[in-house]
Design goal:
By secondary structure, the chain is α/β, with parallel strands linked by helices. It is 40% helix and 16% strand. Helix 1 runs parallel beside helix 7 and helix 3 crosses helix 7. The longest helix has 24 residues.
Length: 255
């Protein structure tokens, strides 16, 4: 099975490529730089700046210091070049069996029409309940920690709305803080992406259509320092046994 990977350049994306390359032949990697959406907030808020520093530290704690495999052909693009005719033709010439998507800008309809049902997205959020941006943050802000999780789905023209192949939640333990919860969810999704996709391609896992009447689409502009304060307060210094029991018994975001 030949795989093409569309992703970005942070530790989580490099770890993603490593896990795919361990199990499949990666014919090409198309990488675009991660856009720093919250620069202005970080400049104006010490808390927000420290928050993103902590996310980086916990990425290394859980994912190590991964690098893109040296034996893979990498096509490095600038922002939004992923939807260029050059990038699309490059991918078509490689004729991949499956395309793995994680952390890029939104793909154009031409990608989806050309590789129909072949583009598998890792969404850091439980769809359909949490779609869009920062969807590991919002369940914690809403004090719905049972809704923290990731979704592996077929890419569609609506954001994070494609047919679901799998949904995964992190294994939570006493003392887990905000950053443990986030990175456990991310790692669970990345570690599962290849086996789940193989089951789908082999016909052993049927995709599930999303009920978008249950969905909410979050935007980057919804995030703020005040909301971050609330999210961090909801976790405190770490999860208690009582909180974990409540999470396990919760019926929110059930599927």
């Amino acid at each position: 099975m030949k795989a093409l990977v569309l992703t970005s350049n942070k530790k989580r994306h490099k770890y993603y490529v490593q896990k795919i390359a361990e199990n499949l032949e990666v014919v090409v990697l198309i990488s675009e730089p991660k856009v720093k959406y919250y620069n202005e907030l970080k400049e104006n808020s010490l808390l927000v700046k420290e928050h993103f520093n902590m996310l980086s530290q916990y990425e290394e704690k859980y994912l190590g210091n991964p690098k893109f495999p040296e034996n893979i052909h990498i096509l490095k693009l600038t922002k939004d070049e992923i939807n260029s005719e050059m990038a699309l033709n490059f991918a078509k010439n490689k004729n991949p069996d499956v395309i793995f998507l994680f952390g890029t800008c939104i793909l154009s309809d031409i990608w989806l029409d050309t590789f129909q049902n072949k583009i598998i997205n890792l969404h850091l959020g439980l769809s359909p309940f949490y779609r869009g941006s920062a969807t590991l943050f919002w369940p914690i802000y809403n004090n719905c920690i049972s809704c923290v999780g990731v979704t592996i789905h077929i890419t569609s023209k609506k954001v994070d709305a494609g047919e679901i192949i799998a949904r995964l939640k992190p294994y939570l333990e006493k003392g887990d803080n905000y950053y443990d919860i986030n990175l456990k969810a991310i790692k669970a999704g990345i570690d599962s992406i290849v086996p789940v996709t193989k089951e789908y391609i082999n016909g052993n896992r049927l995709p599930l259509k999303q009920d978008l009447s249950k969905s909410k689409l979050y935007k980057k502009s919804d995030f703020s320092e005040k909301k971050l304060q609330i999210a961090l307060k909801n976790i405190g210094s770490g999860l208690t046994i009582e909180q974990i029991d409540q999470i396990k018994s919760s019926k929110e975001c059930n599927y």
